[in-house]
Amino acid sequence: MLGRLVLGLVKAALVLGALGAAFVMGLGQASVAPWLAYVGAAAGALAIALVGGKALWKPGALLEAALRTVIGVAVSFGLLWAALRFVHLEPSLLARVGGATAEPVSIAYLAFVVVPLALLFELDNTPAPAEAPRLRVAATRDADDLELDDEAEVAAASRRAGTSKKR
User: Fold this and answer.
1) How far apart are CA 105 and CA 90, in angstroms?
2) What is the pLDDT of residues 72-97, one digit of tens each?
């Protein structure tokens, strides 16, 4: 389980790095408008849903990935809203330019969305512990093979085994 947690954190770091590079290199900003932060959260949830959990080439994985994507995008909106509401991160001073109507949102808030989803999807895919193999015991049909002490036990064992021996 610890390995799954580490794997989830590694996948989250890769997705966050890609999102950060897209925002900073693509837009040239580390802080964006709130609507663009929600788009980034949805993109992060989509990426984590595709790379997290069961591998896409395994049987039944496409349906599972589709469900993870739909649920992940919906949950990402709630996680980003909660992070914006309850966690205060100072936006970049470079983003405060030219009469913006809404307060810019730092892309660091995306970590509050991607990391929990990555951990959830990886832990959900943890395989069940293997059960010990069950041993089969051969059934005896003959009451003579049993070591019984008295005649009543021999008769009861014979009736259970389907044989009736007269003594």
Assistant:
1) 8
2) 899 999 998 998 888 877 655 545 55
Say if pTM beats, i.e. exceeds, 0.70: no
Summarised one tens digit per residue, pLDDT across range 117-153 is 888 888 877 666 777 677 676 665 555 555 556 677 7
Contacts 24+ apart (CB under 8 A), 88-97: 91/31, 92/29, 92/30, 92/31, 94/29, 94/30, 94/31, 95/29, 95/30, 95/31, 95/32, 96/31
Pair of tokens at residue 142:
């003959």
Q: Where are the domains of the chain?
A: 2-124, 136-167
Q: What is the sign of the dihedral through the CA atoms of 39, 58, 10 and 76?
A: positive
Tokens matching residue 146: 């049993």
